[in-house]
């Protein structure tokens, strides 16, 4: 076992600090392997406010997980897609979802 004096030297901690939180995994999952507009993301995640969605998208872009594509049109059009790094996270998020689904089902069954 390796001693880690700084939690951010732990790859799991570092990864969770990037994709953790309430909205980032949901936004990444909704974008998936397609290109999507802000309004469509807003429809897919109705519980998130425009302000928070904008911040999450900006954070994900800064982290290099999504690309923001601006079109010089009237009205302005912006689309988002996962970068190569963002796409590489999808299998991880799918496995996390599988784990969550299997444990959620067990938790519900044990409480019945």
Class based on secondary structure composition and strand pairing: alpha+beta
Per DSSP, the total helix count is 5
CATH fold-level assignment: Arc Repressor Mutant, subunit A
CATH class wording: Mainly Alpha
The count of DSSP E runs of length 2 or more, i.e. the number of strands, is 3
In total, the number of domains comes to 1
Q: Reading side by side through the largest sheet, how are the strands ordered? A: 1-3-2
Q: Tell me, rounded to a whole number, the average pLDDT.
A: 88
Supply the CATH superfamily name: Winged helix-like DNA-binding domain superfamily/Winged helix DNA-binding domain
- Radius of gyration over all CA atoms, rounded: 17 Å
Secondary-structure arrangement, i.e. CATH architecture = Orthogonal Bundle
**Uncertain parts:** none
The quaternary structure here is single chain
Shape: globular
Order of helices and strands: HHEHHEEH
Helicity, in percent? 55-70%
The end-to-end span amounts to 39 Å
């Amino acid at each position: 076992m390796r001693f880690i004096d700084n939690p951010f030297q732990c790859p799991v901690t570092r990864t969770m600090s990037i994709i953790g939180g309430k909205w980032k995994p949901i936004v990444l999952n909704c974008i998936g392997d397609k290109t999507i507009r802000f309004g469509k993301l807003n429809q897919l995640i109705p519980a998130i406010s425009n302000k928070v969605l904008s911040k999450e998208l900006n954070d994900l872009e800064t982290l290099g997980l999504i690309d923001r594509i601006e079109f010089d049109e009237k009205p302005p059009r912006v689309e988002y897609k996962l970068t190569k790094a963002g796409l590489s996270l999808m299998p991880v998020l799918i496995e996390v979802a599988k784990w969550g689904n299997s444990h959620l089902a067990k938790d519900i069954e044990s409480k019945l």
